[in-house]
Write a structure and sequence with these properties.
The complex is a heterodimer of chains A (about 325) and B (about 150). Chain A has helices at about 35, 45-65, 85-100, 110-115, 160-170, 180-185, 210-225, 230-255, 270-280, 300-315; strands spanning about 1-5, 10-20, 25-30, 75-80, 105-110, 130-135, 140-145, 150-155, 260-265, 285-290. Chain A is α/β, with parallel strands linked by helices. In chain A, strand 6 and strand 7 form a beta hairpin. In chain A, helix 5 (about 160-170) crosses helix 6. The mean pLDDT of chain A is about 95. The longest helix of chain B is centred in the first third of the chain and has 12 residues, at about 10-20. In chain B, strands 1-7-6-2-5-4-3 form a 7-stranded mixed β-sheet, with helices on both faces. The chains are: A alpha/beta (about 325), B alpha/beta (about 150).
Chain lengths: ~325, ~150
């Protein structure tokens, strides 16, 4: 089965062609990051306009590189949400137009299902599994007992982990995107600053707003005393506390649900501090981390998720398919 | 109409949000101002709960807006990143739509917002205490009276 997939939920315009949910024939990603850098983050309206500019070219390039004809495509899969509404609509409408004009069925796919299924490109999934979804907009612990069966064990009650990283970066005057910079600096410092307890006890929910406020107050107080902030140490302290709570809750979920596999998904899956802690602490189950190129937004992962979604549900959407800024995975 | 009130605890913030929740109508516009960590998202969680929304309300920063469907939709926006850019057309139809709009860091897009709105500024006094500065314009003047008692 050959799937053409489309992803445009944030600032990457991407089209991929994938065979049987595993062989990526092409995966074109047009990133807008350099455009948004100047604004310290993605600007929705600019993102929408850039998607419009790029989408046709990305479609053509994906088809050319895969070297297949349109009539060989069995299914179109597209990210229907969550994401920036204007950006989503460009991808959804382009996918609908392509499907309609070539008489191909279409399925709308949840963006996070895509991030989770990026891991299936690395290894066959074994169930039950626990997936830690960490990105700029998400922090969720998901239990899967079989393909395309998601149960949300917990999620952030306030800021997403990637967002907390960006806000900490902003507080100490690092650039955008701040997460990777904090991660890098953390390795050059020591966790000497005391951080608040963010474990929240037995729940699988997370909260990162408290530690974010703590860092802001800490920096403010140090500045008022006219002292120097040791930024590497601050980054190390923040990263240690955050990665500790993510890994500790993951381990508890692995044990409680007797998981055979553990994986991480989403943009923060590229965080080296988190990967290191997972390496050190999670040893008794198989651990998958997505390839770096599939950590950030891309259409290949939507193609894989769309493939398993279709196999499981046998359902397709119709031309009423619409984008939605906030939809639940489960 | 302008009022100030002190909130002494999270519980009092919840009570206050419930009062605000009783005043919402389609097209309601509530602007929030306050530093990072002041409690803008906490207030919005309580407001959403009082409107009957059961989904987890968390930060909209990354996507700038999250829509929670309910009897009245709650459109929760954080326009911090639109500083110096101004109103985004993608957001405009929601600001002028039928839901309840809560906008954090509204000053970044103030030129594009309607004159009539409710503005709540949350100031940090200490770890738990907050000072609320509440101002209503147009039809929201009456609402300030209702929620500040």
């Amino acid at each position: 089965m050959i799937i053409l997939s489309v992803e445009s939920s944030c600032d990457e315009t991407s089209v991929s062609i994938i065979r049987d949910g595993i062989n990526v024939l092409s995966n074109i990603v047009l990133s807008q990051i350099d455009i948004h850098k100047a604004y310290g983050g993605v600007v929705p309206e600019i993102a929408s306009r850039e998607h419009i500019k790029g989408i046709t070219m990305v479609f053509e390039k994906a088809l050319n590189i895969a070297n297949i004809k349109k009539d060989e495509i069995d299914l179109v899969a597209v990210t229907k949400g969550p994401g920036l509404i204007g950006s989503l609509l460009i991808g959804v409408n382009a996918a609908k137009a392509f499907a309609f004009s070539n008489d191909i069925d279409i399925v709308g796919v949840h963006h996070i299902a895509g991030h989770i299924y990026a891991n299936a490109l690395t290894k066959d999934l074994v169930f039950p599994l626990i997936c830690l979804v960490v990105s700029g907009g998400h922090t969720e612990l998901i239990l899967m007992k079989e393909h395309f069966d998601f149960r949300k064990l917990g999620e952030t009650m306030d800021d997403a982990v990637g967002e907390a990283y960006d806000k900490v970066a902003r507080t100490v005057g690092l650039g955008y995107p701040g997460g990777p910079l904090v991660d890098e600096l953390a390795f050059t410092g020591e966790p000497n600053y005391k951080m608040p307890d963010i474990s929240l006890g037995k729940t699988y929910n997370f909260s990162f707003s408290g530690i974010k406020s703590h860092v802001i107050n800490l920096v403010h107080n140090i500045k008022q005393r006219n002292e120097e902030i040791n930024i590497p140490d601050l980054c190390a302290s923040f990263q240690e506390t955050v990665s500790e709570v993510l890994v500790t809750k993951s381990i508890r979920a692995i044990e409680e649900y007797d998981a055979k596999m553990f994986m991480i998904a989403g943009g923060v899956a590229a965080n080296k501090g988190l990967r290191k802690k997972i390496d050190e602490r999670i040893n008794n189950v198989e651990v998958i981390v997505p390839e770096f190129k599939y950590c950030t937004d891309n259409a290949a992962m939507i193609g894989v998720a769309g493939y398993y979604q279709y196999l499981k549900t046998k359902k397709t959407d119709n031309m009423r398919l619409n984008g939605s800024s906030r939809i639940d995975l489960v | 109409m302008f009022k100030e009130m002190v909130i002494n605890s999270v519980k009092e913030m919840d009570d206050f949000a419930k009062k605000v929740g009783k005043t919402v109508f389609p097209g309601y516009l509530l602007c929030l101002e306050g530093d990072l960590g002041a409690g803008k998202t906490t207030f919005t969680k309580f407001l959403g709960a009082s409107m009957g929304i059961t989904d987890m309300i968390n930060s909209p920063t990354f996507t700038i807006m999250k829509i929670y469907e309910g009897t009245l939709d709650l459109n929760h926006m954080d326009v911090y990143r639109l500083s110096g850019i101004g109103m985004d057309y993608d957001l405009e139809e929601y600001v002028y739509g039928d839901g309840v709009c809560v906008i954090e860091w509204y000053k970044n897009i103030i030129e594009s917002l309607p004159e009539e709105k409710l503005v709540i500024e949350i100031k940090i006094i200490d770890e738990f205490k907050r000072l609320l500065k509440i101002e209503g314009f147009g039809k929201y003047e009456e609402i300030v009276k209702k929620i500040s008692n």
